[in-house]
Design a protein that fits this description.
This is DNA repair protein RadC. It comes from Desulfobulbus propionicus (strain ATCC 33891 / DSM 2032 / VKM B-1956 / 1pr3). Belongs to the UPF0758 family. This protein is an alpha+beta fold and 245 residues long. The protein folds into two domains: 92 residues, no CATH class; 139 residues, Cytidine Deaminase, domain 2 (3-Layer(aba) Sandwich). Helices cover 55% and strands 14% of the residues. It contains ten helices and five strands; from the N terminus they run αααααααββαβαββα. It has a five-stranded mixed β-sheet, with helices on both faces. A hairpin with a 5-residue loop joins strand 4 and strand 5. Helix 2 crosses helix 3, helix 2 packs across helix 6 and helix 9 crosses helix 10. The chain starts with a helix and ends with a helix.
Length: 245
Amino acid sequence: MDKCDWQDKGAGHRQRLRDKLLAQGIEAFTDSEIIELLLTFGTPRSDCKEAARAALAQFKSLPAVLDASPIQLQQIKGIGPKNIFALQFIQGVARRYLRQRIVGKQYVHSSREVADYLIHSMRGLQHEVLTVVFLDAAHGIIDAAVVAEGTVTVNTVYPRELVKAALARNASALVIAHNHPSGSLTPSRQDEELTRSLHLICSFMHINLLDHLIIGASDQVYSFADQGIMAKIRADCRRLLDRTA
C-alpha cells in the first residue's frame, strides 16, 4: 500500500469515528477509541490506533492515561508533544467544566458534583494539594481554589492565607479537601490536627468549616463529617472557646 492509499484509509477511519460519536454518543466508544480520537486531535494526519492501544495497555485505564505526565506519555511509541497537548487540553477543559458547573449551586444538594470535581482535579497527582470550596451563608457554592501545595499539614498550610481567601470571597462556610497520592483514604493524625486548627481559627472569624475530604486513588472520598469527626471537633472547639470566654 502506498502512502496516499494509507492516508486515505486513515482519514476514512477517523471520519467513521467522528460519525460514530455524532450518531451514537461517547458511550458507544471503547476506551481505546476515545484515546485514539484524542490523539488524532494533535496529529490529524497520523494513524494513532496502535499508540492508543499501547497507552491503554501501559496505564491500564482511560483516567490513568489522561492523568499520566508528559514524560510518561512520551515513552509510548507514536505519542509526541502534539498528542500530549491534545490530552492535556481535554483534561483542562474537563476540570474547568466540572468546577464551573458547581458554582452557584447549593452544596447540600450538589455534594456529589463537588466530589466529582475534586476527584478529577486531584486524581493522579504525585504531590498533595489542599483545595477549598467557598460557600455563602446559605451554603451556596461561590468558588473553589487550590490554596496550598506540597505536604499538607498544620505546619505547611497557612491559616491566614486561607481566611484571607475566604474573606475576599465573602464566604461564610468552607469545605476543605486534600489528596493522598499513596491512595489511602485513612486520615492521619496530622490530618485531624490540621482540621482542628483550621476549624478553631475559622470559628474566630465566624466562618464555619463544614467538612474535610480526603481524595484517594480509586475515585473514592473520605468525609470527616460523614465519619463523625467534624462533630467531635466542633464539640471540642466549643468547650475550648467556653473556657476562654
